[in-house]
Design goal:
The complex is a heterodimer of chains A (240) and B (473). Chain A is an alpha/beta fold and 240 residues long. Chain A folds into two domains: 98 residues, Rossmann fold (3-Layer(aba) Sandwich); 116 residues, Rossmann fold, CATH 3.40.50.620. The two termini of chain A are 31 Å apart. In chain B, a hairpin with a 4-residue loop joins strand 3 and strand 4. The longest helix of chain B has 46 residues. By secondary structure, chain B is mostly helical. Chain B is 68% helix and 3% strand. Chain B has a single domain, classed as Up-down Bundle (Amino acid/polyamine transporter I), CATH 1.20.1740.10. The chains are: A alpha/beta (240), B mainly alpha (473). At the A-B interface, helix 2, strand 3 and helix 3 of A face strand 4 and helix 12 of B. Strand 3 of chain A pairs parallel with strand 4 of chain B.
Chain lengths: 240, 473
């Protein structure tokens, strides 16, 4: 089954809104409670003091996901480096996507963006699993400068979703800045699904696209992770 | 293990050591309900080691050491490096076998038992406090010189007040600051190394007569060999940083590889830099004149080679280096206190974390308070020697702990790195550490012994019921 990682700054009171457990009811969910510590504080020291409280909160969240019909477990990590922790646990649990929680009620319609250099097939198959046999509509958005090619990609993706009886609508944005196109289209949708982008200078300077989109759009954002070749990844880590 | 059943016990308040089963991976420590991310890489480890050491060895000691031993002070630094290396190798083995925060204290309490562990753990706390006070006084001298370079002459009377002010600042910033300064520390160390490589590279060329004006050769050891050894004991404070790497062992990624590289690597790098620095500075001025410049002699050496730009670069470098030494040691001190308090040898309150800032404010206060008291004394050499004394005791016992563990290897003992030249290296390491104690001034030895007796007394009163030997999580 498909696994979604839900990272939360658990001791800072981050939680999930009511709509998210329902949206993820078709998925395996791992709730990742993390607590970022300043470098003066050894993670172990924080664990002794906060472990019980954090675990209590995580068990409650786990229950919320299970009550909505999904299956869930949790991990608790004390760390100095949030991104490293999320990456490691995502690899560890072989998560296919992670969620930026946002705020939403019941989800009726998803905005799925296929913009950029991403594996379209992975996103459409993730969306198929996510929607399952529920009445959730999907808008497929593609912002591109290459209209004919974009149209082909979009049509193929629409076909693969329509095959599974999903109510799907295409939207092609030509010669528009991708981020603006996405945020303009986000109105009327309850959640966004997007692909993970390779880190770029832009993301280094301005923060990751996913986080900016989450901040602008309020609703939850599901980021489908790139497929990782496990052996290559292992070697890369040994070298770093 | 046969004594596993007796592990634990309780202190006078009825608290027991918190010892839980854990699984160590290269990227995290996994306990029953939680994981602890390992976030420090090799460069972070080297930055802690080098950043702690370089301030003292290069920016404070050259003048003092040359005054005592002449150009042979280079030999004193070389002896220090050799002793440090003989200890860094066994320390690396122990650290890879027990990659836990707490460093020397952890290895000795697990390898030799609770009494030596308690003495070392608490002595390490005071050793770090003395070392930090010493770095801060060094900072004070550089702060005064900085003002002088800026055209504000305030005289040495302001050294101690400035050191106190900065010491209080470091403590407060560590309690309230939540921004990670680790990247800044890496940058500072990289900057310092670049300044030094340029400076020492040019200075060495000059000293051997390839550029500039040839200087009159001086007798290498004008005061004989004994001062070389006593100076080695004094300047050993410039090699204490590698053990600070071990206090963050629990937070280091791939500890089997990175811990030995960071500890041994930082000793080798600073050792070479120290010897080169003494060589270059005694060539520039002759040791007698160098000695008259005192704690900030390096500024004059910089001026000699590069004019006022050189002086400014060294003053700036000295400020950064003594700052980073002081800051890194305050962090290590609070970790040392935490490790001891986790094992119920200090009241549990000591490891309490502040709810507002998420920082261990009690431990930081227990570091900062005594540090300020010691800074106020302003006695650079005494502070340095007592710091070395307390660390050398730890180092000697650490080698003994390695020998004890190796002779009768417990099942849990499985280091990734094994010391080359066993048993010669740890035996020499122990002998050299203890021997160096003998070359210190009597007053430093007395202060050191008094502190150790006090810690043993505290153990007898507070933690006698605690048993830690072989208590590996």
């Amino acid at each position: 089954m498909t696994r979604v990682l839900v990272p939360l700054a658990i001791l800072e009171g981050e939680s999930v809104s009511t709509g998210l457990p329902t949206l993820l009811a078709t998925m395996d969910v791992t709730v990742l409670g993390y607590h970022v510590l300043p470098e003066q504080t050894p993670p172990d020291q924080a664990r002794l003091q906060y472990e019980d409280r954090a675990t209590e909160a995580l068990v409650d969240l786990e229950a919320a996901f299970e009550a909505a019909g999904g299956s869930a477990d949790h991990r608790l990590v004390f760390t100095h480096d949030r991104d490293r922790t999320i990456d490691r646990v995502a690899d560890d649990t072989a998560a296919d996507a992670y969620a930026i929680t946002g705020t939403t009620g019941p989800v009726d319609r998803l905005l799925v963006t296929l913009t950029g250099d991403i594996a379209v097939d992975r996103i459409t198959s993730f969306v198929t699993e996510l929607v399952g046999d529920r009445e959730i509509g999907v808008t497929l958005l593609l912002a591109t400068n290459d209209e004919p090619r974009g149209r082909t990609v979009l049509e193929r993706a629409v076909a693969s979703l329509a095959e599974r009886d999903i109510d799907v609508e295409p939207e092609l944005a030509v010669d528009e800045p991708p981020l603006e196109a996405l945020l303009a289209a986000a109105a009327g949708h309850d959640a966004i699904v997007m692909g993970e982008q390779a880190p770029s200078l832009r993301s280094f300077l301005l923060g990751e696209d996913a986080e900016r989109i989450a901040a602008e759009s309020v609703g939850p954002v599901l980021v489908v992770r790139e497929h990782r070749d496990e052996t290559a990844d292992g070697e890369e880590q040994r070298q770093s | 293990m046969s004594d596993q059943s007796s592990v634990g016990g309780a202190n006078i308040e009825g608290d027991t050591p918190r010892i839980e089963p854990t699984v160590e991976t290269d990227e995290a420590t996994i306990t029953d309900d939680a994981e602890l991310e390992r976030t420090l890489g090799l460069s972070g480890g080297l930055a802690i080691g080098i950043g702690t050491m370089i301030g003292a060895g290069i920016f404070v000691f050259p003048g003092l050491a040359a005054g005592q031993a002449g150009p042979a002070a280079a030999g004193s630094f070389a002896i220090g490096a050799l002793v440090a290396l003989l200890v860094a190798l066994p320390a690396s083995e122990l650290a890879t076998a027990m990659p836990k925060s707490g460093g020397g204290y952890y290895y000795i309490s697990r390898g030799l038992g609770t009494l030596p562990g308690a003495v070392v753990g608490l002595s390490l706390w005071f050793g770090l406090v003395f070392a930090t006070a010493f770095y801060l006084v060094g900072f004070g001298y550089y702060a005064v010189d900085t003002l002088a370079e800026l055209g504000v002459t305030v005289g040495d009377g302001l050294v101690i007040p400035l050191a106190l002010l900065f010491g209080a600042g470091v403590t407060v910033l560590n309690v309230t600051g939540t921004e990670n300064a680790a990247k800044l520390q890496n940058g500072i160390v990289a900057l310092l190394l670049s300044i030094l490589v340029v400076f020492l590279g040019y200075g060495s060329l000059d000293a051997v007569g390839l550029v500039g004006t040839p200087s009159a050769p001086e007798q290498f050891a004008p005061f004989g060999t004994l001062p070389v050894l006593t100076t080695a004991a004094l300047v050993f404070t410039s090699y204490l940083g590698f053990a600070q790497v071990a206090t963050v062992a629990g937070e280091m990624r791939d500890p089997g590889r990175n811990l030995p590289l960071a500890m041994v690597g930082s000793v080798l790098i600073v050792g070479v830099l120290y010897v080169a620095t003494i060589f270059v500075s005694t060539s520039a001025f002759g040791s007698e004149r160098l000695a008259t410049f005192g704690e900030t002699a390096m500024v004059e050496v910089g001026r000699h080679y590069f004019g006022s730009i050189g002086a400014v670069a060294i003053v700036f470098g000295g400020l950064l280096a003594t700052m980073s030494s002081a800051n890194a040691s305050v962090l290590s001190t609070s970790r040392a206190i935490y490790a001891v308090s986790k094992d119920a040898l200090l009241p549990r309150r000591a490891s309490h974390i502040n709810l507002r800032y998420g920082t261990p404010h009690v431990a930081l206060g227990m570091a900062g308070g005594p540090i300020l008291a010691l800074v106020a004394t302003g006695r650079v050499e005494l502070l340095a020697e007592v710091a070395s004394f307390l660390h050398l005791i730890t180092y000697g016992l650490l080698c003994v702990a390695l020998l004890a563990l190796r002779r009768n290897e417990p099942v849990w003992y499985d280091p990734d790195f094994r010391v080359p030249g066993y048993p010669v290296v740890p035996i020499l390491g122990a002998l050299a550490s203890f021997a160096l104690l003998g070359f210190m001034q009597p007053v430093s030895q007395l202060v050191g012994i008094a502190i150790m007796l006090a810690t043993a007394g505290w153990y007898a009163y507070y933690g006698r019921g605690v048993s830690l030997k072989g208590a590996v999580e």
